[in-house]
Specification:
- The complex is a heterodimer.
- By secondary structure, chain A is an alpha+beta fold.
- Chain A has four helices and three strands; from the N terminus they run αβαββαα.
- Chain A has a single domain, classed as Alpha-Beta Plaits.
- A three-stranded antiparallel β-sheet of chain A has the order 1-3-2, with helices on one face.
- The longest helix of chain A has 20 residues.
- Chain B is mainly beta.
- Chain B has two domains: 77 residues, Immunoglobulin-like (Sandwich), CATH 2.60.40.1120; 631 residues, Beta Barrel (Maltoporin, Chain A), CATH 2.40.170.
- Chain B has a 22-stranded antiparallel beta barrel.
- The radius of gyration of chain B is 28 Å and the shape is globular.
- Classes of the chains: A alpha+beta, B mainly beta.
- Chains A and B meet through helix 1, helix 2 and strand 2 of A and strand 4, strand 25, strand 26 and strand 27 of B.
Chain lengths: 114, 745
């Protein structure tokens, strides 16, 4: 009986996570950045957007891979939110004001990947 | 008032300092040996947000900052350089083409061989294989001598075995795992660490306090995890030969081969031998056993990154023979000699499998399955001890997230089976026990990616001898500032006991063994249970532009139930369940500082109050120093063009007074209050690295030649009741000098 309880507990947690995956969308798009600092900023910023489950950004390709819950947020809003903290995306550009506030090493408009 | 003034001055100073600019020019040398200015080079302070770029003429100007002195020069097609800048000067830099001078070695910053993370939730210290090279040789039990978190003590004058302790508690209270599979336990408790050759080890992770629930309920004072070398990363051929003036000879050979894109295999061989006889203290007994050992390990690795699959399969065989006791050829009186022999055979096989869904990278599945069979046949004088331990272990882990990757969890279950068969002294004392346990666990971890992270774990186990029980464990880390981090942990652990294999020292005594039956499942005794909680604070600093940190930690282990091993009465050894209090309180303050580019110092003071209720009173554990002091200094010269350099390190240990239960038996050496004298131990090693392929090392252990004068009590009457080789507080052997080579091809 107790064995059953533990197994059920385990299986239910497994099913629960499977359930989320059904609404999950995986996609990737370009986000501008030039350094490790940008990577930290982009990944941290993206994961904190409500509905985003996973974010990984590659400095060389400037590609951000994300997995998000399509019931909670749409892709357009994700782009918009990323631009809000200073990094241009395919769809939205960061305002000059926010861009100026970036750390110096992250000035992706003038610096090359370093 | 003065303090305030000082602060203002400091603020002003730091402000003006940060506005100062470092100027210079970046260029490269072209094929015609002309210096050409480089435009577009990224110049930034390492691990900071301050960075600039060079202009058309190669000129740059960057604000000087206080948090680091490492300036990085980076540009595509050129070799990345990191230089140390300590004061504001005009600094011109020349970058080199990536293709040129590939052989040249530029060491930008020395990697610390012991790494403490600011970001991990648990108090984990990572020990790299470079750190392991500092210890004389050759197996893991000796490799902790340069590490302040773990203490190595000498525990027996016959077998020469060294015991490791953490937080003041002996190794049975530690969970020792090999790639997260419980390894040194049961029958291999005493000798197990000495059966893992040091060269096989890639790195070690030392966790102070409670470990993770994923690895089981067993850890009480901490966990040591050993990562072995992986065939895919290790050198194709590695040879190590070692020899000491005490007659010790060791040899290691690794052969690794990549069979195809997915499969690699490695063959690891180790042999050791010592057939010389030493009796420097003239007590008629060998100071160290004669032995020979052989270790064979074949490992297969499968990696398919596209499919996200990694698998390991390993087979291992170990054989070891130790001969010890009286020096038969030089006996002064004619009688039957007291001899001892320990023969061990062990077979291990393990299979590990990991799967990462390439589509959903945060979802992983892991499986670990291991089987081992350990057989020890031994006698000590007229006493026998044989143990057979067959063990099966399996653990299945599922990793995923809750919402997003800031909230992760691990869930899974494990099954283990252990079969012990022991013969103690005579056939009449035959013990047979089977431990079966099935458990399920869940561990949640949260990371706000900035200041706070925590891990909360819970497991529930069904154990045929321990019963059914929950094991909760909790860890939290709070990092208010970049260089300040607090950690707190609390949890509980349990242990099934193997009183004879854990206390084999008793067989090399004349003591009679008494077990006070308590109707428990372990030799009539009830199982052990303890809770452990502790706090740790680490503060980093920059002094003289060099990094350093101070760590203070305090841990308490409280036993709810314990099997007391009572050596207090002469001629007797008692095992009984605790009645009353038992605790271990450990305080440690540690300094780690890079004095200059080449010299690093680690220093620690440790205080252990380990007390329990014995039948004869509430006392500090015997042979457990209350105070210890540790310092390790290591020096490494700058590599020159051909990659050669020197490496030197020296370790100083001061070991405080220890309580000796049978102090009345000792001559004037022991002070009248029953304490051993305190003493110093110095180990040192010098390595000449000729290239990345070849190095020679020489060294010495116990340079001060400190010995316990009378390690064996009543050594003239080894078959008597008072004969005792277990009351060891200091080294038995004098200075050991050694030489060795390492060859990587």
């Amino acid at each position: 009986m107790r064995y059953l309880f533990v197994l059920l507990f385990f299986i239910s947690s497994f099913i629960y996570s499977q359930d989320i995956n059904n609404k999950s969308v995986k996609t990737s798009f370009k986000v501008s950045g030039v350094c490790e600092m940008c990577k930290l900023r982009i990944e941290k910023g993206a994961i904190k957007i409500k509905g985003v489950k996973y974010a990984s950004w590659d400095v060389n390709s400037n590609k951000l891979s994300i997995i998000y819950n399509s019931n909670k947020i749409n892709i357009d809003n994700i782009h918009k939110n990323i631009a809000k903290f200073g990094h241009d995306t395919d769809k939205y550009k960061a305002t000059d004001e926010v861009y100026q506030s970036l750390p110096e090493c992250c000035y992706y408009k003038t610096l090359s990947i370093h | 008032m003065r303090i305030r003034f000082f602060l203002i001055v400091l603020l002003l100073f730091s402000k003006s300092h940060s506005q100062e600019l470092l100027n210079g020019k970046v260029s490269f040398i072209n094929n015609e040996n002309k210096s050409i200015p480089l435009e577009g080079v990224s110049i930034y302070w390492q691990e900071s947000s301050v960075g600039v770029i060079s202009d058309v003429n190669g000129n740059y100007s960057i604000p000087f900052i206080k948090s680091t002195n490492l300036l990085v020069f980076k540009m595509l097609g050129f070799k990345e350089d990191v230089v140390t800048i300590n004061k504001i000067i005009n600094y011109d830099h020349i970058l080199k083409n990536e293709s040129n001078d590939l052989d040249e070695v530029i060491v930008s910053k020395r990697k610390n061989t012991i790494q403490k993370s600011y970001f991990k939730t648990q108090n984990i210290v990572n020990v790299s294989s470079d750190e392991l090279l500092k210890a004389a040789c050759c197996n893991i039990s000796e490799s902790f001598e340069t590490n302040p978190s773990i203490d190595v003590s000498y525990s027996n004058a016959i077998t020469g075995v060294k015991q490791v302790r953490m937080l003041g508690l002996e190794s049975p209270y530690l969970l020792i795992t090999e790639e997260n599979i419980p390894m040194v336990r049961g029958a291999s408790q005493v000798f197990g660490l000495s059966f893992i050759p040091g060269t096989w080890v890639e790195s070690m992770q030392i966790t102070k306090g409670m470990g993770s629930v994923v690895n089981g309920f067993e850890s009480i004072s901490g966990q040591i995890n050993v990562e072995l070398k992986k065939p895919i990363n290790d050198a194709p051929i590695f040879i190590n030969v070692f020899s000491s003036n005490m007659g010790r000879k060791e040899m290691n050979l690794h052969l690794n081969k990549k069979l195809n894109e997915k499969f690699s295999t490695g063959l690891f061989l180790h042999a050791d031998k010592n057939s010389t006889i030493h009796d420097n203290n003239s007590d008629g007994f060998l100071d160290h056993p004669k032995y020979k050992g052989f270790n064979f390990f074949n490992r297969w690795q499968y990696t398919d990154l596209e499919k996200g699959v990694v698998g390991f399969l390993g087979f291992r065989f170990m054989k070891n023979e130790k001969d010890s006791g009286e020096d038969v050829d030089n006996m002064k009186v004619k009688r039957l000699p007291w001899l001892s022999e320990i023969n061990t055979n062990r077979f291990d096989s393990n299979f590990k499998f990991g799967y990462v869904n390439p589509e959903i990278p945060y979802e992983t599945i892991g499986a670990q399955i291991a089987y081992s069979s350990h057989e020890q046949k031994s006698f000590f004088g007229i006493r026998n001890y044989d143990i057979n331990h067959n063990s099966f272990y399996s653990n299945f882990i599922y990793n995923s997230i809750l919402g997003n990757t800031m909230h992760k969890f691990k869930g899974g279950f494990s099954y283990s089976y252990d079969d012990f068969d022991e013969i103690v002294d005579t056939e009449k004392r035959n013990y047979n026990r089977k431990d079966k346990s099935f458990g399920s666990f869940f561990e949640y971890s949260y990371d706000d990616l900035e200041k706070l992270s925590l891990v909360a774990g819970l497991r529930y186990d069904f154990h045929n001898n321990l019963g059914s029980f929950f094991t909760p464990r909790f860890h939290i880390r709070y990092q208010p500032l970049e260089r300040s981090v607090f950690r707190f942990s609390v949890g509980s652990g349990r242990k099934s006991s193997n009183i004879f294999s854990e206390n084999q020292g008793v067989f090399s005594t004349g003591r009679k063994i008494y077990i006070d039956n308590n109707n428990g499942n372990f030799y009539g005794l009830k199982s052990e249970k303890a809770s452990n909680y502790g706090i740790s604070f680490r503060q980093g600093f920059l002094l003289n532009n060099q990094e350093g940190d101070i760590t203070v930690d305090y841990y308490i282990t409280d036993f709810i139930n314990q099997i007391v091993v009572d050596w207090e009465k002469q001629g007797e050894l008692h095992f009984y369940n605790l009645e009353g209090k038992s605790f271990a309180k450990s305080f440690q303050i540690e300094l780690d500082y890079q004095i200059s580019k080449d010299i690093r110092i680690k220093s620690a003071y440790k205080n252990y109050v380990v007390k329990k209720q014995y039948n004869s009173g509430f006392k500090q554990n015997p042979l457990t120093p209350k105070n210890r002091f540790f310092t390790n200094i290591d020096f490494s010269s700058k590599p020159i063009e051909n990659g050669s350099y020197w490496r030197y390190d020296i370790t100083y240990n001061w070991i405080g007074k220890q309580r000796m239960p049978l102090h009345s038996m000792y001559p004037s050496l022991i002070t009248s209050n029953g304490l051993s004298p305190s003493y110093n131990l110095i180990n040192t090693q010098l390595t000449r690295v000729f290239s990345s392929k070849f190095e020679i090392y020489i060294g010495g252990e116990n340079i001060g030649n400190y010995n316990q004068i009378n390690p064996i009590l009543d050594s003239t009457n080894p078959f008597g009741l008072n004969f005792d080789s277990s009351q060891i507080y200091a080294p038995i052997m004098g200075t050991m000098l050694y030489i060795g080579i390492r060859l990587k091809l």
